């Protein structure tokens, strides 16, 4: 399993897929699922859904991870060929200067570029400690004029992402772009492989969702259609095993998958998830029986689209699970393949444990 996770994650991290422009990622996953004998479908917004029908007397489950990544949208091409952009998603401005980017032009014509940084020799003492706002940055593609840039397929509205990159670190660790949440997508693919030959169990819908980085949109559309009883979101968990994160919690790379007991954004979007006790109990008990270490997280500043999925219909039994990750939203994020393998095994085992006695209510009244 670990080798498949490594291969699929590495391939996924090299595919650009800005929010609202996930088509290449979706098509790649759909083809891999097809080769594995798994059917899937897309909805109008771009979600990819693989459904595994089961016992209709059991609660139905939606397990999902987002395909999209954050980045930029071109807002102006200047006469000298330099390009101005707007941020799309929570791009950290202090980590942008001199980063390599990829502009995804018309007809699949990708153009490399660099977010320019003022030459050190011309930087005043005051400027050395100043972080430029994204709106003040420019991208240099090497072209010398607006007409050259447009001839290369770059216009207003062109999506821009960090230049796709992936490489291995020591100890089964992977570094590169869009670990958030291509790692979750790789785990979903492992779950799909496990479900295709099962004989019993609940109906399970695996959703590779879109536009999570753009105000948490895609998974809600899928949930409105699928109407699951239970929703499980797969995303990053903030690793707290580096010095600047040590007081934020107790989540370390290589320590196993994570379970969120509390999340709240608290910055503009006043939303979050307090998981349903039945879902928490399912995962905690499964971690023991399956022999998978399970870490716990409670964070402010974190938000997933589960916060909206949980409100669909009469309410959905919801829980966030994930993998520890360092350096979130930067051009080089880091995760551990062992944590991804543990997460896949945990979820496969947990889905198999969902039976008729699973409590959807809070006081024993059931659904």
Topology, element by element:
Blueprint (H helix, E strand, L loop, with lengths): L1 H12 L9 H13 L5 E2 L5 E5 L8 E6 L4 E7 L5 E6 L11 E5 L5 E6 L23 E2 L5 H6 L7 E4 L3 E4 L3 E4 L2 H17 L8 E6 L8 H9 L3 E9 L19 E7 L7 E2 L3 H14 L4 E6 L5 H4 L7 E9 L7 E4 H17 L14
Parallel strand pairs: 3-12, 3-13, 13-17, 14-16
Antiparallel strand pairs: 1-2, 2-12, 4-5, 4-9, 6-7, 6-9, 7-8, 10-11, 11-18, 14-15, 14-17
Helix pairs in contact: 1-4, 4-8, 6-8
Features:
Aminopeptidase; alpha+beta; 2 domains; 18 strands; Elongation Factor Tu (Ef-tu), domain 3; 367 residues; 9-stranded mixed β-sheet; 25% helix
Quick recap of the structure?
By secondary structure, the chain is an alpha+beta fold.
